[in-house]
Amino acid sequence: MESSEIVATPVLTEAVKTTSTTPINPATPASETESSTNTTAEVTSDVPIAADSATTADEPVPGPTEAPAVETTATIFTDEHLDDMGIDVQTAHEDNALGIASLFHIFSNSTVLSADTNGNIATDHLIDGTTDFGTRGYDGDLFYIGHLSGTVLPNSFRANDSLIYVGNSVSSGWIDGHAVINRVKLTNVPADRLFKDSADTVYIDFDSYFKLLREKAATYYAQNDSAGVTYDFTNMNQRTIDVSDASTYAIENHEAHVYASIPLSVLQTPQSLYVTGVSSGGPTLIINVIDDLTDVFEGMLVNLETKTEIEVDGDLLSSKERTEFDQSVILWNFGDDHLNYNFIMAGRLSVRFLRQMQRSLAM
């Protein structure tokens, strides 16, 4: 998975979604991260479709029989379809540590999907979507693709009853009752679940929202550790951050967040790191990752190998696929953008990531 500014993407096989202390019902929110690099690509323009093209799901759909997608002036904040799906956008925006990014497995400026992705996506530019994506067994995934280079697979958007929005430049329509994107008929998406931005509207304004997320990241990064957070790194095989007391205090005092911090060097070793005392009904735990490395330079790629073991409600999270996301209550905040990260512990660093600036994460 590649993306230039990733927020909240799951790295367990699950798709983690939301962080508010009162769980919201997301489309398929975020959270832990996948691989990424700074990449750019030109948006593809609509391409005429040959009248004699095959009509199978794997091959281009004939243009003459393809009807255009319905255009909409709705934004994610005004979309009435989301009310029907039980998605409370305003609550996510105001109360969640990641705002509306929490509604997505991947929220990015640009994305390359290179492996099966079990979650939903909001991206300004999908550079390559030729792999299956969408949350298995989930009802009501929300997707937004502002620009599309290349194509998608017929089995993309595989959640049940997905709702899909695309940018005005994306070739889209419907045929035989199925949605079509870039001449590919989507077997999982009925025609009435695909909408296209009007010429003057974007469903998600990524520039504005990433500005807000950068401000959030800076605010979180400036916080001191919450009272009651304890650290025990004396045993390399049982390194532990315990937030039990801090979480209890936050709940009693109606505080939304608990803050902890960890040296970046701790995440470079392969031994397990245990995070305990987290509650699905409690505050969001924001872990600020502090750069303590020497001899680093701007844009340097740093390998992160630590396996994190997250205890929520007294049980360690397993690496299984999920369709319930109330246990997604940890946010890793890497602060400023002077380093790039390679998460070579694929599938291990769980929950969500937040970075201030446009830098890449790599898995």
From TrEMBL:
Upper taxonomic lineage: Bacteria, Bacillati, Bacillota, Bacilli, Lactobacillales
Region (Disordered): 1-45
Organism the protein comes from: Paucilactobacillus vaccinostercus DSM 20634
Superkingdom per UniProt: Bacteria
Regions of compositional bias (Polar residues) in chain numbering: 16-25
Protein name, entry field: Cell surface protein
Comp. bias (Low complexity): 27-45
